[in-house]
Design a protein that fits this description.
Structural class: alpha/beta
CATH topology of the largest domain: Rossmann fold
Number of strands: 18
Strand content: 25-35%
Number of helices: 10
CATH class of the largest domain: Alpha Beta
Helix content: 25-40%
Order of helices and strands: HHEEEEHHEEEHEEEHEEEEHEHEHHEE
Distance between the termini: 40 Å
Largest sheet: 7 strands, antiparallel
Shape: globular
Number of domains: 2
Oligomer: single chain
CATH superfamily of the largest domain: P-loop containing nucleotide triphosphate hydrolases
Strand order of the largest sheet: 4-3-2-1-7-6-5
């Protein structure tokens, strides 16, 4: 099923007609934003547009199609196949992953019971993020992460501002290391996918290709998941996205002490930015990571600005 058909399945009837008549390339679609009583917004080819009542992309808010309560309700019915209850656990996390790996972020009134999120109702805001896998995007960095003599990788930290392709790069690194090549033997990788963004599992099945030797803990908190992976799946490598909490840093140290190699990402603009964050600064001062990859979107999304060694010396 292609992207267009997958989209038709989840939108309300009125929105299906509206979107189907837009003259666009579907592989350049990135996000749809549905907010009650607000304009329908799309992120297309890295730019934000309003979708008009006449099925065109525009910067003119006055001609934008306005999302009604009914469009939100009907869209959620199609997303959940008329059974929001079946997605109760995902709703607690604030998102639902659907077939194709597309991620539906939701917001509304949160119901809290005994300090735990029980559910969400009156959903009024939907963010549809389309899954895009770019195979081969890690081709230029893999050789810097590998110690071929020992058939192992270096502990690696990918540093990137938001929306600069860190998860896409991480996913392809995982795929390539898992599959192996004529230059290195494939490695067993444990992915702790807390927000279902790396493998994009749907009903337990990865919608993205993350390699033949990869095991996944889906929707699992990173700190707990790293411990579980070590105890149950014996990974050579553990991969997680967007670290930052004290518990996650401790889990990273524990994983390393158990002999696992780490590939993780973090939000940041530079090495200096990471050094300025108290929880993360220890990673650099203790030289836990042997490779740092810095991304930007200066000329394009996923631009590799620098690769550093453990002492922050530039090697690329």
């Amino acid at each position: 099923m292609d992207t267009k058909e997958e989209l038709f399945k989840i939108f309300s009837i009125k929105l299906r007609v509206l979107i189907s008549n837009i003259d666009i390339e579907y592989d350049k679609l990135q996000e749809f934003r549905l907010r009650i009583n607000s304009p329908l917004i799309v992120i297309y080819n890295n730019k934000e547009y309003f979708i008009t009542k006449t099925s065109s992309l525009s910067n003119d808010i006055y001609n934008a199609f306005i999302i009604s309560k009914n469009e939100i309700r009907e869209t959620m019915e199609y997303i959940s196949n008329y059974s929001l209850y079946a997605f109760e656990e995902e709703i607690k996390q604030g998102f639902i992953t659907i077939s194709g790996g597309h991620r539906i972020g939701i917001s509304g009134k949160v119901i809290v019971e005994n300090d735990f999120i029980k559910t969400m109702k009156h959903i009024s805001f939907i963010n549809i993020r389309l899954a895009h896998q770019i195979k081969g995007c890690a081709d230029n960095v893999i050789k810097y992460l590998l110690n071929k003599k020992e058939n192992r990788i270096y502990h690696t930290l990918i540093i990137s501002p938001p929306r600069c392709g860190k998860t896409t790069l991480l996913r392809d690194i995982i795929r390539q290391l898992s599959n192996g090549s004529s230059d290195w033997q494939g490695m067993t990788i444990g992915v702790v996918d807390e927000r279902s963004e790396i493998a994009s599992c749907y009903q337990g099945v990865p919608q993205n290709d993350v390699g033949i030797r990869t095991d996944i803990l889906d929707c699992c908190p990173k700190a707990k998941g790293m411990m579980m992976m070590i105890r149950s799946m014996s990974p050579q490598i553990i991969a997680v996205d967007e670290i930052g909490s004290k518990d996650e840093i401790e889990a990273i140290k524990y994983s390393i002490s158990c002999g696992c190699k780490l590939i993780v990402t973090v939000h940041g603009d530079s090495i200096e930015d990471i050094k300025s964050k108290p929880v993360l600064s220890h990673l650099l001062s203790e030289e836990i990571f042997e490779r740092y990859i810095l991304l930007s979107n200066r000329t394009k999304i996923g631009k590799i600005e620098n690769i550093y060694d453990s002492k922050c010396n530039t090697i690329f």
